[in-house]
Each structure stands twice: as C-alpha cells, then as structure tokens.
Design brief:
The model has no long low-confidence stretch (mean pLDDT 94). α1 (5-24) runs antiparallel to α3 and α3 (45-65) packs antiparallel against α4. Helix content is 70%, strand content 0%. The chain is mainly alpha-helical. The protein is globular. It has one domain. It has five helices and no strands.
Amino acid sequence: MNGTLLLRIAMALILLTHSVFGMFNNGINDFGNLYLNQIGFAPFGVPLAWSVKLSHVAAAVLLLLNRYVKLAGFVTIFVLIMGIILVHFQEGWFVVGGGRNGMEYNFLLIIVLVAIMYPNGFKKDKIQE
C-alpha cells in the first residue's frame, strides 16, 4: 500500500466536495458570472470557473487511482495559487478565527499535494548498480 493513500483520499474528498456541490446549486456559474467576469475575465468567467471545477474532479479521480499524480498535483496547485492571488490574499491568512476567507487552507492543501507528489522528498532517485 502506498504511504500517501490517506492523504490522496482526503485530498480527493476535499476536491470533490468543493466541486460537485457547485455543479448542482449554480455555484460555479455564479462564481464565473458574479466574480470572475467582474474582475476582468469576461466573457470567459463561466467557462473558466467550470474548467477549474472539472480539473478538481479529474485530479480527485487521478489521486484515487494513484495515476498521473504529479500532473494532477501541479494543475491543482496552480489553481490553488491563483485562488490565493485572486481571492484569499486580500483577506489575510486566517480562514476563521483571526479573520475570514484567508489563505491558510489553500496553503495547507498545497503542502499536502507536494507531500503526495514527492513522498520521498525532492532527492533524485539513486541509480542501482
């Protein structure tokens, strides 16, 4: 069993819940229309929002299957960094408590993805002789 299994399951659940509910309650369309279009992404806000959420679903599936983990990780990390830049940075660090809607949660998700992508650290694999 891979040592990242629990982290991959947890990350997949977070990505799926963060995506799927918005598909059924108009949250993705609202994010595209009411936020992304308003900050300069018009007329691409809705397609961009859907691309982000579908990338989350794809990443969740890949993490669960333990396939293309680095690709899924890099794409998701990019999305999370853009979320920090566009949404969370201006709100500060704290998600709750010392503030609201901050970047600490995205930061943690990024670190978890890096741990999944590089379970043995960043050292190069040794060539066996």
